[in-house]
Amino acid sequence: MANIFLIGATGGVGIRLVPDLIARGHAVTGLHRKPEQAEDLRAAGAMPVEADLMEISASDLEMMVQGSDAVVFSAGAAGSGLDRTTAIDGDGPVKLIEAARKTGVKRVYLVSVFPDAGRSRERRDGFEHYMAEKKRADAALAGSELDYVIIRPGTLQSEAGDGRVRAGHATPYGNVARGNVAAFIAELIDTPLIRREIFELTDGDVPVAEAVACLKRD
Ligand SMILES: NC(=O)c1ccc[n+]([C@@H]2O[C@H](COP(=O)([O-])OP(=O)(O)OC[C@H]3O[C@@H](n4cnc5c(N)ncnc54)[C@H](OP(=O)(O)O)[C@@H]3O)[C@@H](O)[C@H]2O)c1
């Protein structure tokens, strides 16, 4: 049993990850920003902690993540503006890295974005900025001494998924069900030997547990 702190617990991935982690016997604390979300998180078995990533400092986060075995960052500004994207997708993980270092939380799982996400799309400043902020966060985490795993999912679909994925250091671009992303993260959390890695992730043919087992290095 591990204590997992989940940032973005009410999001499309987060809301699916909470029950996955609880079913695996973990204790989950979920960060949420709206007071009315607390009850749903509690009903799902998580302990709610109310905070707005736009407002809190690294030292505020430090107090929140204290005692956690691992932290998952799955929050995102979801196209709500350049400043919010900077503050949530870019600064959010950077604050978390500082908080984790200071509190001795060793493991951080960051939901980033597939590098090919912008291909074949009309160029949009907001999207370019989003991709740059995601990369800034990835680089900060990969440059830290933490036991990180960066997950780069393809285009997210609001589906539970069939529990089958394609995952690796470099894989073809595609869609991925939010439920499959959650299942992949839950399996990674239970496979702590996998650390200091960056994985691309889409839907695929391989059951999640098998896909994660294949990612272990000898
Ligand atoms: N959309 C895609 O196709 C795609 C592809 C690859 C990667 N991603 C990334 O995957 C991750 C998960 O995606 P998702 O679909 O689960 O995202 P989502 O449904 O938009 O959820 C985002 C989460 O972040 C929270 N959040 C937003 N602003 C916040 C703030 N100021 N303070 C605290 N929490 C805040 C949201 O809280 P509320 O419930 O209060 O809004 C929600 O829990 C994101 O980082 C996203 O950028 C997305």
TrEMBL record:
Pfam families, per the entry: NAD_binding_10
Limits of the NAD(P)-binding domain: 8-192
Entries under CDD domains matching the protein: SDR_a5
Matching InterPro entries: NAD(P)-bd_dom, NAD(P)-bd_dom_sf
SUPFAM superfamilies: NAD(P)-binding Rossmann-fold domains (SSF51735)
Signal peptide: none
Protein name (record): SDR family oxidoreductase
